[in-house]
Amino acid sequence: MTGLVNLMEETVLEKIDQLWKGTEYCQCEKCRMDIAAFALNRLPPRYVQSLTGKMLHKFDANTIQMDAEITAVVYNGIQIVGSEPHKNDNQF
User: Fold this and answer.
1) pLDDT in tens, 2-32
2) What are phi and psi of 77, to 5 degrees?
3) Which end of the chain is more exposed for a tag (fewer CB within 10 A), N or C?
């Protein structure tokens, strides 16, 4: 692993995949990225630069409190994006 990685991004994408498939909302990649952007702008970043840091974050992300926070933000994003998919398609 080289460089910086925001592990919250990986965690959010995994959570989207878990929660999203149980909905009837649009399942395209654009909507997935819109949900991810929504969630990542509301959650603290978790940058690491080593495998040890990655393991520590995975442990932290699995705590009940952190998982509940991530789940709530992602679910909110799914509802917002799902209710108006591709809202910004006609803008420059």
Assistant:
1) 688 888 999 999 999 999 988 999 999 999 9
2) -60, -40
3) C
**47: three-class secondary structure by DSSP:** strand
Task: Measure the CA–CA gap between 5 and 51, rounded to whole angstroms.
Answer: 10
Q: Over the stretch 28-76, which tens digit does the pLDDT of each residue have?
A: 999 999 999 999 999 999 888 877 777 776 667 678 888 999 999 999 9
Which amino acid, residue 23? T
Residue type, 57: H
Q: Which of 76, 71, 80 is nearest to 88 (CA)?
A: 80
Q: What is the DSSP string of 48-89?
A: ESSHHHHHHHHHHHTSHHHHHHHHHHHHHHHHHHHHSTTTTT
